[in-house]
Amino acid sequence: MTQAHPASRSTREEARRILQAMNDTPIAAMDATFYQHYAEELRLIVEDLLAEPALPARVWTAKRHGLLLGVCETQAAEDLANAVPGLWLWPHHVLTEATADIVERWSTI
């Protein structure tokens, strides 16, 4: 017997879908089966999250006296901000379109 698989979604999209379904369920319909079903789905999502490679929560660009000092992760940014007066920090963003282009170019090298 072939089992149907849902369309591939990101872990975040799947979590949002489950939470929305839970929020939309009337209280009268919340029985033991309801909780068992969603607990299992959420358990699977947590497994997916734990299996994903760990990435820094956020990357920051650091600048002082008009000079670009570098890029660091959140914890290092907090430590530097406390230790270095006049340090400016802002989130470092990479456009996904640029990333896709880089991946395409680098994969041919």
Give a written overview of the molecule.
This protein is an alpha+beta fold and 109 residues long. The protein has helices at 11-24, 32-51, 74-83, 96-106; strands at residues 59-64, 67-73, 87-91. The chain has a 3-stranded antiparallel sheet, covered by helices on one side. Helix 1 (11-24) runs antiparallel to helix 2 (32-51). The model is unreliable at 1-7 (pLDDT under 50).
Largest sheet: 3 strands, antiparallel
Report the β-strand fraction as a percent range: 15-25%
Mean pLDDT: 81
How are the strands of the biggest sheet laid out side by side?
2-1-3
Helix coverage percent: 40-55%
Q: Report low-confidence residues grouped into runs of 5 or more.
A: 1-7
* Global structural class: alpha+beta
Q: Per the principal axes of the C-alpha atoms, what is the gross shape?
A: elongated
C-alpha end-to-end distance: 44 Å
Q: Count of helical segments?
A: 4
Our Rg estimate from Cα atoms comes to 22 Å
Name its key features:
disordered N terminus; 109 residues; single chain; 17% strand; alpha+beta; 3-stranded antiparallel β-sheet; 4 helices
Quickly describe the structure.
With 109 residues, the chain is of the alpha+beta class.
Describe the secondary-structure layout.
Blueprint (H helix, E strand, L loop, with lengths): L10 H14 L7 H20 L7 E6 L2 E7 H10 L3 E5 L4 H11 L3
Antiparallel strand pairs: 1-2, 1-3
Helix pairs in contact: 1-2
